[in-house]
Design a protein that fits this description.
This protein has two domains: 174 residues, Rossmann fold, CATH 3.40.50; 78 residues, N-(1-d-carboxylethyl)-l-norvaline Dehydrogenase, domain 2, CATH 1.10.1040. It is globular, with a radius of gyration of 18 Å. By secondary structure, it is α/β, with parallel strands linked by helices. The protein has twelve helices and ten strands.
């Protein structure tokens, strides 16, 4: 039997992951911060604000009570913006069950300190297996069942494999690795380059400029990653190059549209 999973964060990506898990037969509960949004999702059996095209499976639970969600979960999967990550972590830490796995699909650094998110997790929940879920993945395409591949990076190989198996579906593939730092770095830095690419596109500088920005940007990511101890193969994989290409070229990329 699959372990129960609590997905914290009812934005587009958290919703997509929760629905994916529930469709795979995993007992899943989606927690939302807004009481009204929770009521609306439970009534419509869809997240009409973020992913109206994705109908919730009957088995997906919706809750606004975070203590219950976390306490009853064998795996807690956090999917909130990076600026909310630290506060949410502080809220859930007393409620996490002994031995429960902690995973996050949040990209970015802690804005208050500039630290990696895994450092915050290790400080608060040092005795729990931890993993980051990242890669080139627009939530809307996952919602539509379009082919997607991402990576689960963890220092606990068994936890990485377990989480990858729970996510695996006919059109969704999760690969595993043990380079959390490299995966987090790639997922954060690509956003800066996507904004720059959007600026270049908006100025009409052409496809040559876009390709140059992506390529030289990848070089910068590799240099910084090497200095920080990340594995080059992580940054050249889904968590780095894959996410960079998607975010710099995809019309669904918010960072590119911002630029």
């Amino acid at each position: 039997m699959s372990p129960p999973v609590a997905v914290l964060g009812a934005g587009s990506w958290g919703t997509a992951l929760a629905v994916l898990l529930a469709r795979n037969g995993v007992p899943t509960t989606l927690w939302g911060r807004s009481p009204q949004a929770v009521v609306d999702m439970a009534t419509a059996r869809a997240n009409t604000r973020y992913l109206p095209e994705m109908t919730f499976p009957d088995t997906l639970g919706i809750s606004g009570v975070i203590e219950t969600c976390v306490r009853d979960a064998a795996i807690v999967l956090i999917s909130v913006p990076s600026h909310a990550f630290r506060d949410l972590l502080d809220v859930i830490t007393p409620w996490v069950a002994p031995g429960a796995g902690i995973a996050w699909a949040t990209k970015g650094f802690d804005p208050g300190s500039g630290r990696f998110l895994h450092e915050l997790v290790n400080e608060r929940l040092p005795d729990h297996p931890a993993a980051v879920v990242t890669g080139p993945s627009f939530a809307r395409e996952v919602a539509l069942g379009m082919p997607t591949a991402l990576t689960v990076q963890s220092n606990d190989a068994d936890f990485a494999q377990q989480l990858a198996r729970l996510l695996h579906a006919p059109t969704f593939r999760a690969y595993t690795g043990n380079d959390i730092l490299g995966a987090e770095l790639g997922g954060a830095m690509k956003n800066v380059l996507a904004v720059a690419t959007g600026v270049a596109d908006g100025m009409g500088l052409g496809l040559n400029a876009r390709a140059g920005l992506i390529t030289r940007g990848m070089n910068e990511i590799l240099r910084l990653g090497t200095a920080l101890g990340a594995k080059p193969e992580t940054l050249m994989g889904l968590a780095g190059l894959g996410d960079l290409v998607l975010t710099c070229t995809g019309d669904l990329s918010r960072n590119r549209r911002l630029g």
